[in-house]
Amino acid sequence: MKRRVLAAAALLLLLPLGVPTPVRADDDNCTRQSRRVRLPNGFAEARVSFVGVLTNGRNRTGETFRGAGLRELRVIVDWTDVEKMHHQRVEISSPDGALFQRFASTFVGNGRPVSVSARLPVTGSAITDSGLYGEWCAEVFLDDDEAPIARRRFILTTP
Amino acid sequence: MGASTTALTATVNWSSVNTVIVLGGTSSVTATPNNGTNYAAGATIGGFLVAYSGSAATDTSYTQGTGLTAGTTYYYKVWAKAGPVGSCTVAPCYIGGAQGTVTPRTGATAWSSLTIGGAARNPAVAGTGRMSLGSNAGKLISLNSATGAWASVPGNTVSAVPGYVSVFPSGGGEAAIGADQSGWVYSINPATGGINWLIKLNTDAIQAAVSIYSRGFFSPAMSTAYPGTYDIVFVTTMNNTATGGFTNNKVFALRSDTGATLWTFSPATLASGLCPAGCPMDQVLGQPWVDYVRDRLYVASRDGSAGTQNSLWFLDIVNNGALLARYSGADFTTGPSQSSDGNSLWIGDEAGVLHIVNLTTLTKTTNSIASGTAYKGFIWEDFNVDGRLYFVTIDGNAWCLPTPASASTCWKTKPLATGTVAQLMPSDSLLWVGGSNGTLYQLNLTSGLVTRTFTVGAGTLALGLVSTETGDELYVATSDGALYKVTLTAGSLP
Q1: How many domains does chain A have?
Q2: Which domain holds residue A25?
Q3: pTM for the model
Q4: Which residues on chain A are in Cβ contact (under 8 Å) with B159?
């Protein structure tokens, strides 16, 4: 939990450097936020969304998902304004605040919107086995930044 | 980077091509060494002690053997000392900055060991003086089972290793085989951390643990079919929807010495026997079971988006994975297990139905005693009483059935009023489950009563699966990626 609070503080401290676009003003540790940052060759902004792949194969978007019947959760990062090649890191923290998994990838922007997704298996994984239900946090980092450029919570409810 | 503690000693491990500097303190390390400045051990930076300042890149650990207090959390942060890079023009240039913590504990906690970067919630698997496990940090980790320190530098994987590893004798030593969420399979020497081989299979991801058919148990028919000295590694797939993942999953049989594919079972493309027009196969999440008596492989999968696909598969290993039987009507997210007499196969499904297969006739019956609550993990048979079963369901109950077909329980216990427990591990007279509340529970196998509890670490993080090395200790991980060794007293929690 401490780590998440520190990350939240770092994000808030850095918000004045960019153009903040908070969805909610009150901070609940993983309030949906994103910021626009200046890069040597332009700007970058990211937003996080989630798509749950259900047992029946259908997709469901949103922030809250039933822990049972969810094959996997896709964490989608939509980048805007980005030019050239960059490194993306998505850190997923479990409800107890511990870092559960980190997804790293590279992408190439050309100024147009680009999406990068990561797959988090749910059913039959350590998540359902250990009952890690509750509020999770997804934080997105660009290149070597230590502060997230975007973050958003998602909730896995108890079966 | 890893950090472990046993008694009042802390060990920091790292993997770096450069020398490193380690700062330590009793609060999160906020100081950063200045590029271009050399620091000696014993100096301070921003109030934090330079615990270690290396001059040999071959060093991979630092141990603090004095001055630690039980119950106090110690922070260690490691930077590599690199040459000029980026905006840093004068060496040493400090790069990285990975921090881990240890909290020395007394009593039954023999040691704890944290490898940073993600959860490592699968059971640690015993080797010779080592415990091996996969990590969401993209590591295959082998720890010294006496101290918790790295037995070798962890092998890097492309992505997370979601299933537990298989450890088996190989070439006079041991091999640890694991698979990752990118479809790679790795064979690691746990003594050195060196990679024996790695191979990318034609799949999106692998979630289930791999299984091994050891040559020492080969039947004459198996030895004829597979001449040589290698064992056989079975790998199952979890393809995603973008590539038809609910229909095109496979089973691979690999040579343990090279990783080369011996055969592939791809039921969706079969055009003979039981599947004249192909049988689509959904994702496999549970470890396949090797039947050493009948030279068969039993695989359980999910049952497709419509819930109508086959999901229980019986393969003939001698005949290159030929399909012997398949069943539909159940959605499986765990692996099957075989009775001690070799005649039955058991597995629970997502609907709470126990499936019982007669392995002589390959006929299947069911028991709906746990209807409505998905099964979690393997079905365990009592070590002394044939047919007496133990299992856990997703609602946090531990169950005992006097016989597989029984309509009543021997007992049913929910250790936590709120929360759940992970998969169980039994002994002759007890079983243990890790709670989502950070507590380890010990149940009496006869009564089902909780006879002991043990707080793991700070008791704030959910526990994973329990394992053991000799029966005199338990290993269990917390959700931050730390593994704990808990010493048993006469086979029981203290």
Answers
A1: 1
A2: 2-157
A3: 0.92
A4: 103
